[in-house]
Amino acid sequence: MNGRMAASSDRIMLGPLVAAIDQGTSSTRFLVFNAKTAELLSHHQVEIKQSFPKEGWVEEDPKEILQSVYECMERTCEKMTQLNIDISNIKAIGVTNQRETTLVWDKETGEPLYSAIVWLDLRTQSTVERLINKTPGRNKNHLKHKTGLPISTYFSAVKLRWLMDNVPEVHEAVLSHRAMFGTVDSWLIWCLTGGKTGGVHCTDVTNASRTMLFNIHTMEWDPELCKYFDIPMEILPKVRSSSEIYGLMKICSSLKSGALTGVPISGCLGDQSAALVGQMCFQDGQAKNTYGTGCFLLRNTGSKPVMSDHGLLTTVAYKLGRDTPACYALEGSVAIAGAVVRWLKDNLGIVQCSTEIEKLAAAVGTSYGCYFVPAFSGLYAPYWEPSARGIICGLTQFTNRSHLAFAALEAVCFQTREILDAMNQDSGIPLTQLQVDGGMTSNRLLMQLQADILCIPVVKPSMPETTALGAAMAAGAAEGVSVWSLKPEDLSAVTSEKFEPQINPEESEYRYARWKKAVQKAMNWETTEPVSNGNGETSIFSSVPLGFYILGSMFMLIGAKYISGRHN
């Protein structure tokens, strides 16, 4: 009896709770936090299947994404019931999501009109090359003054353009005014607030700033940008702040999670912005690096957008309230971080599960001169080179799978070093330590390697779910909810672990220089625009080396025939 009383009194003690949907590239989570202490009380995670229908194409199923959210909610609510935590104490729900991933659906049927094209996808490379060739001076930064972004396969506008050009269902739905475009946050919020029966079609400023259709100065969809990509503005979601009530949850009442019906969805942040908030980087100059599928270093630059001279993006960090000014960030984006481990597991089979990589790499403690540049989707910051491809170099007969595993972990660290260097050059104030988060930070060898390669300490919070925490904070702090205070004095202290550099800087610099050499070898590998001979046909002589090779071979054959003829 006493145990039950204690449990019920615990339940009263908890006070208001806030939940977060964290829909990432490789998995979906639903997490519940205590709004007063920021303690994680319960969560559930489901992996998301990625499909690669053609080389360079990356897709996910919008219905599977939605279903995974429902499943995570249901399982978490079941776990909370077992823990004797009252679900009705959840006062708000925040959404955070993989950014740029592009969806189009039919507002009358509620059905997706195509797969979700994932941010990593490269099918738009020829579109991007065509757009850049149209700009004065073939300048990929032609739209940067408005968007903060280079013209790249990474952002949503080119993916949406591809859908409109290549998927008849999308083209027809746009013409008949039935199409809705959105990034993952928009799709989820629309579905969770009623879908075709009154669902709210919105996005927040952080997600909007990753489309190439949003003006980061006026904080609105830009008619000129929409015209540039020839995208009708009516299909775009309404842009809102990152912290306000967008709508109320509608869930089937027969489910455990049916208890969430009527709870406001009141926070929305792209995953990297959410991690910045979750790491409490509210001051100009504070930064964090998230190790997920990709790797993303964001530095808060305050209320003014700062343009980079070193290949970084200018992005909206957050806008915590309708009448609150927006904050901006400089961002270094790396396409492949955790994805390299998934590739070693799924494609090469050298590990059975992702956690094995640490053990395998630690067995040798060195890459033995092997360097791995995982440019599977070209190179992002600071190069923005879509024609780069993955390369493994420095192999000898001595190299084994352990060295390859070590080289893969080093690759994540070297890529972070490149974007950190760019950030230090842009800001003029070098970071003295790096705050980190994300799934890969549980790999202690990676964290130590990162400190060694950066030559500064790496600081990891004990609670790794900072992305979800950021979304929960935005939701709990929203006007009309107000159960989470974001005042500096009210933010709970975070316990963390620090990794100090353990190798001498000379060795670190030597390895970094070798990495840079490997990166150069990965460049200009794949171009999609074949050279035409004027009749619309591609000539074998469009490749100069191939042309020389063929001509040379012909002359050699003729010469050989001539010589053999003389000897007969």
UniProtKB/TrEMBL annotation:
Its EC number is 2.7.1.30. Belongs to the FGGY kinase family. Pathway: Polyol metabolism; glycerol degradation via glycerol kinase pathway; sn-glycerol 3-phosphate from glycerol: step 1/1. GO terms for molecular function: ATP binding; glycerol kinase activity. The keyword Disulfide bond does not apply. One of its GO terms (biological process) is glycerol-3-phosphate biosynthetic process. Residues 288-478 form the Carbohydrate kinase FGGY C-terminal domain. SUPFAM superfamilies: Actin-like ATPase domain. This is glycerol kinase. CDD domains: ASKHA_NBD_FGGY_GK1-3-like. The lineage of its organism: Eukaryota, Metazoa, Chordata, Craniata, Vertebrata. The keyword Ribosomal protein does not apply. One of its GO terms (cellular component) is mitochondrial outer membrane.
